[in-house]
Description:
mainly alpha, single chain, elongated
Amino acid sequence: MPRGLPSRVGVEAARRAELVRVVVYLELGALEDLELLVRDRDPHASRSEIVRQAVSWLRARRAEDLVRLRAVQQRRAAQAAEDARALMLSRQDRDRAQAEDTLTAALAIIHTKGSDGCNH
């Protein structure tokens, strides 16, 4: 039985972790805000590390939003399915009650015809 990560997973993780050069233009105030946020955790972080952390936070936030959205969609779909089942059951109940009423009425007609002795 194999142990550890498959090699393709390790290769993909290494590829995704590679640093690439990107030029980002930020407003000075935005960069200062990011520096304040990051320096609280890591006082010696470079500007590149600060921007990388900010991007990580944005990705994590977006992933969290997507997970919440999926959960909401699943709850709505489950509720819609439950509503449809309830509607179907109520239709079946109405159809069953109507069929019973029709049968009762038909039996009543048969019994009345049979009791007056006529076979019309």
